[in-house]
Amino acid sequence: MTDSPAQKAKTRPAPFVAEVVRTEKISETMVRLVVGGPGLAGFQPSPHADSYVKLMFLPAGTPRPLGPDGRLDLDAVRAALPPDAQPRQRSYTVRAFADGELTVDVVVHGDEGVAGPWAECATIGDEVLVVGPGGAWSPDPTAASYLFAGDASALPAIAVALERLAPDAVGHAVVEVHGPEDEIPLAAPAGVLVHWVHQGFGVPGLGLIDSVAALPPLPQPVSAFVHGEAGSVRELRRHLRNERGVARDQLSVSGYWRLGADDEGWRATKREWLATIEQSEAAAGLV
Length: 287
Hints:
Layout (H helix, E strand, L loop, with lengths): L4 H6 L5 E12 L2 E7 L15 E6 L16 H7 L7 E6 L2 E3 L2 E7 L7 H7 L5 E8 L10 E7 L3 H9 L7 E7 L14 E7 L7 H8 L8 E8 H14 L7 E7 L5 H21 L4
Parallel strand pairs: 8-9, 8-11, 9-10, 11-12
Antiparallel strand pairs: 1-2, 1-7, 2-6, 3-4, 3-7, 5-6
């Protein structure tokens, strides 16, 4: 039997109502948030390296009705808000979870966006609505080599994946950030070389694409993780599939954001974007 839209809506998990425990600015454009409190009781991250949560932001003054389980009734919240004031969500890698405290790293670009400005001004005790977790990818322990590529939005996930590699792993991690002030220490095995690409005032992703293309051949099979701006991710996926022979089942690839679109606009078109890419690969005989 197929559920009605209303029935499907009711299956959405209620958010955890956590609170800010502490914050730390770990680079010029990244703030580390640690959240916890009794409202986070019961949270368990995905076991995968790309475990993530969504931070939810409500308009100021929005009522917080509780459901039968004592947690925030998100359906009631949505029903009480007009279409142009619905909750907004932003996804973040679970950088760490220990002793009931959840750590996420948030990219901040001044007053742009929703989560960044909030994170930069967050203080101890501020409410945080946490939805999740999700996640489905980890580095393949049987791979001969590894390749990680992404911009600042993918940096936390790349950091987690590097920490999970075996000590004898080999490969490359290529990360594009604005400048040297945005580099952070990464715990990579000695055989995995970390390359920092400085975007400066250039077009996002172009330097990342060029740097990955310039890498030497890697032992096959390659386990690859490519996340960041949609346009550069698409080109990197093409390069890895067509020119480096990376198998589809060894590739985790996603456009975290798209140049010229806000997060809501990008999510509305992301499925179509992915379908177009997969159709192109199928036409080229790639499986």
